[in-house]
Specification:
By secondary structure, this protein is an alpha/beta fold. 62% of the residues lie in helices and 9% in strands. It is built from 23 helices and ten strands. The longest helix has 48 residues.
Length: 626
C-alpha cells in the first residue's frame, strides 16, 4: 500500500476545491463581504484628509462661531463626516455577519471533509490500515488535517482581505512617489522567507512526533475509557498511565518549543528590519508638508496609507506563512484519500443479503431457512502469510480442503496461526503466497460484499457496540433489524431469552451505561450476544467461523453451544478455533497447527491413537479437570 507524495501546490489546490465544494454559498458571501469591508480603511483615510484640509483652511480665516451650521453648509465636509459614521456602523455590522457566516463555513468544511475521511477509512475491505504504524500515523495526521483545513478557510478570507486593502493602498501611496511601494516590499520580504522556513520546521517536528501523538492519545483513552476504568482503579494504574502521558507530552512540547524559540528570535529580528522600511517614506512626507508641497490633510492621508500598506503587507505575509503551514497540514488528508487499499471493496447498489430478499415476505421467512440449496467447497492451496511490516511467516505452506456438511476444528498453542487462517477465509487479509478457492474460484476475484454475505463469524475479539440490544443482534443482518421475530429467534437460540425478559426496555435497551437507561452485561452475556448476531444471518451463510466461541461460558452452557454448533453445521462448512479440546471431539476433522504449519490432521480418535502433539495437548488439558 503506497502513499502518494504531493508537491506543495497540489494539496493547496485540492484544499481550495474541497472548501468550494463543501460551502460554496458561505464562501461566496464571505468574499463579497470581505471586498466591501476592505474598501473601508482606505475610504476612511480619504475622508479624514478631506475633513482635515477643510477645517485647517477654514481656521486660517478665523474661528467658527456656529460649527454645526457651518458643517451643514459644506456638502463635501458633511458628506465626509457622514461617510465616516456610515463606514463605522457598516464595519461593525459586517464584522458580526462575517463571524456568523464563517462559523457556518467552518462547520460545513469539517462535516464534508470528515465524511470523506471516514468514508475512505470505511471503504478499506481489509484491516491492514489499523495494524500498520505508518498508516496509523497517516490517519492521525489526517484527523489533525481536518482542523488545518478549517484554519485554511480563515486564512484564505484573511488573505483576500489583505489583498483588497493592499492594492488600492499601494496605488495611492505610489502617487506620493513611485519608489515607496518598492521600499516597503523590499524591507518586508526577508521576514517572509524566514517565517515560511520556521513553519516548515514546525511541520517536520509534527510529522516525526506523529507516533508519539498517537501513543499519547492511547493513554488518554485508557484514562478516560469505560472499558479500562475498573482495572485501572483495582490495580492502581492511574498514576503510571498518567505519567506515561505526561512524559510523551513533555517530549513533544520540548521539541516544538525549541523550534518556536529559534523561529521567534529570527522572525522578530527580520521584522525589525521590515519596520525600518516605513521610516524613509514617512520622513519624505513630513518634509514635504514643511516645504508646503503637501497639506496637513495630505500628511494624514499619506501617513495612513503608509501604515495601511505596511499592515496589509504583513497581513499578506503572515497569511502566506499560515497558508503554507495549513497546506503542509492538509497534505495527509489527500494522501489518505488517494491511498489505494490492497483489497478493494466492490460495493454493490444493494446489500448482498438484502438483494436476495427484495420484499417483506421474503425477509420474514429469511431466518427460518435452514437448508442450503447449493454446496460449497473451499480449497486452501500453498498458502503462506506474513503480517504487514513483518518478515516472519505466520502461516507457511498451508494446504487443505473444506467441504459442506463438515465441521473442522483448528487447535494449537497461542501464535500457531489459527485465527490468522479465519481472517484470510473472511478476506480481511490477502495471502502473501498461494490462494484460497471458493468452488474453484479465487476469492480475490469474487465480489467482497457477496462473499462476506455468505460467511457467518463469531470473532474472538467480538465487538461490543454501544447501541441497543436490537441493533447489537440485528447488525448481523441489516434487512432483519426491525423484524422482532427474527431478533428474538436468534436470541433464543443463543440462550439469553431470560436476559431480555429482565430488561426494562426489552430489545430497545442500550447495552452501555454511558447511555441513559443502559445496562452493563457480563462477558458471557456479551459472547452470547455476539453468537446471536451471527445466528440471525444463518440462512444466507455457507461458511460458519467460530473463533474461541465458548471462552467466556460456563461448562453447562458450553455443552449447549456445542450441540447447537452440530445442529447449525448441517449443510454448511463450519470452522472452529478453540483452545478447549473437548469441542474438538465433536469435529469431523481436526487440524493441529504449530509455528504456522499443519503438523497433524484427523479425527479425535485418530489423533489420540497416533499419540503425538494432539495427544499430549488433550492429555494435559484433561488432567486439569481431575
Amino acid at each position: 500500500m503506497q502513499m502518494i507524495r504531493f508537491n506543495l501546490f497540489r494539496p493547496l489546490w485540492l484544499s481550495v476545491l474541497l472548501i468550494i465544494r463543501s460551502a460554496p454559498i458561505e464562501l461566496r458571501n464571505l468574499v463579497v463581504l470581505t471586498l466591501i469591508s476592505s474598501t473601508g480603511p482606505n475610504a476612511v483615510i480619504l475622508f479624514n484628509k478631506i475633513i482635515i484640509d477643510k477645517i485647517s483652511t477654514t481656521l486660517e480665516k478665523g474661528v467658527i462661531t456656529n460649527p454645526i451650521e457651518f458643517i451643514l453648509q459644506q456638502p463635501l465636509l458633511l458628506g465626509s463626516i457622514g461617510g465616516l459614521i456610515l463606514l463605522s456602523l457598516l464595519n461593525d455590522s459586517i464584522h458580526v455577519i462575517t463571524n456568523l457566516i464563517f462559523t457556518s463555513l467552518k462547520d460545513r468544511v469539517q462535516g464534508y471533509v470528515q465524511e470523506r475521511v471516514l468514508q475512505k477509512v470505511a471503504s478499506f475491505g481489509d484491516i491492514i490500515l489499523f495494524e500498520t504504524p505508518e498508516l496509523l500515523n497517516l490517519v492521525q495526521l489526517a484527523e489533525k488535517g481536518v482542523e488545518r483545513l478549517q484554519q485554511l478557510s480563515l486564512i484564505l478570507i484573511t488573505s483576500m482581505n489583505g489583498l483588497f486593502i493592499f492594492i488600492p493602498a499601494v496605488l495611492l501611496s505610489g502617487s506620493i512617489a513611485w519608489w515607496i511601494p518598492i521600499i516597503l516590499f523590499f524591507f518586508t520580504s526577508p521576514s517572509t522567507y524566514i517565517e515560511l522556513k520556521y513553519r516548515k520546521q514546525s511541520w517536520e517536528i509534527e510529522k516525526t512526533q506523529a507516533s508519539n501523538f498517537r501513543e499519547m492519545n492511547l493513554y488518554k483513552s485508557i484514562l478516560m475509557g469505560e472499558s479500562y476504568a475498573k482495572e485501572l482503579r483495582l490495580f492502581g494504574l492511574q498514576t503510571m498511565i498518567l505519567e506515561r502521558w505526561k512524559v510523551l507530552f513533555r517530549k513533544i512540547f520540548r521539541a516544538m518549543q525549541q523550534v518556536r524559540r529559534e523561529g521567534i528570535l529570527t522572525v522578530v529580528s527580520w521584522s525589525i528590519l521590515g519596520g525600518l522600511g516605513i521610516i524613509l517614506p514617512y520622513i519624505y512626507v513630513v518634509t514635504g508638508v514643511l516645504r508646503g508641497s503637501y497639506t496637513l490633510g495630505d500628511l494624514a492621508l499619506y501617513s495612513g496609507l503608509l501604515l495601511q500598506v505596511r499592515q496589509s503587507l504583513y497581513l499578506l505575509i503572515n497569511s502566506g506563512a499560515e497558508l503554507y503551514d495549513a497546506v503542509l497540514g492538509t497534505n495527509p488528508i489527500f494522501q489518505l484519500l488517494k491511498l489505494k487499499p490492497n483489497l478493494q471493496n466492490l460495493t454493490s447498489s444493494k446489500n448482498a443479503i438484502e438483494a436476495q430478499y427484495s420484499n417483506r415476505k421474503d425477509l420474514q421467512t429469511l431466518f427460518k431457512k435452514e437448508s442450503m440449496s447449493d454446496t460449497v467447497e473451499i480449497q486452501i492451496k500453498n498458502l503462506s502469510f506474513s503480517y504487514p511490516g513483518s518478515d516472519r511467516k505466520t502461516l507457511e505452506d498451508i494446504n487443505l480442503t473444506l467441504h459442506s456438511n463438515e465441521m473442522v476444528v483448528f487447535v494449537g498453542e497461542n501464535g500457531a496461526g489459527k485465527t490468522t487462517i479465519t481472517k484470510l477465509l473472511c478476506r480481511l487479509y490477502e495471502p502473501t503466497i498461494g490462494e484460497i478457492l471458493w468452488n474453484g474460484q479465487d476469492i480475490r476475484e469474487l465480489d467482497l460484499d457477496e462473499l462476506r454475505s455468505q460467511i457467518t463469524v463469531v470473532l474472538q475479539d467480538y465487538a461490543r457496540f454501544p447501541t441497543t440490544l436490537r441493533e447489537n443482534v440485528g447488525f448481523g443482518c441489516l434487512p432483519l433489524i426491525q423484524e422482532d421475530i427474527a431478533i428474538e429467534n436468534a436470541i433464543m437460540r443463543s440462550g439469553i431469552t431470560g436476559l431480555v425478559e429482565h430488561l426494562s426496555q426489552g430489545l430497545e435497551t442500550p447495552l452501555t451505561k454511558q447511555l441513559e437507561g443502559g445496562v452493563d452485561l457480563s462477558g458471557g452475556q456479551w459472547q452470547r450476544i455476539a453468537l446471536a448476531r451471527s445466528l440471525i444471518r444463518l440462512s444466507s451463510s455457507k461458511l460458519l467461523i467460530f473463533d474461541e466461541p465458548t471462552a467466556a461460558l460456563d461448562p453447562k452452557t458450553e455443552h449447549e453451544i456445542y450441540k447447537l454448533f452440530r445442529t447449525i453445521a448441517r449443510g454448511r462448512i463450519t470452522v472452529v478455533v478453540s483452545h478447549r479440546l473437548s469441542l474438538a471431539k465433536l469435529a469431523d476433522r481436526i487440524f493441529v497447527l504449530k509455528d504456522g504449519k499443519i503438523i497433524e490432521t484427523g479425527t479425535h480418535d485418530e489423533l489420540m491413537e497416533i499419540g503425538k502433539h494432539y495427544h499430549l495437548m488433550f492429555t494435559r488439558q484433561a488432567s486439569s479437570y481431575y
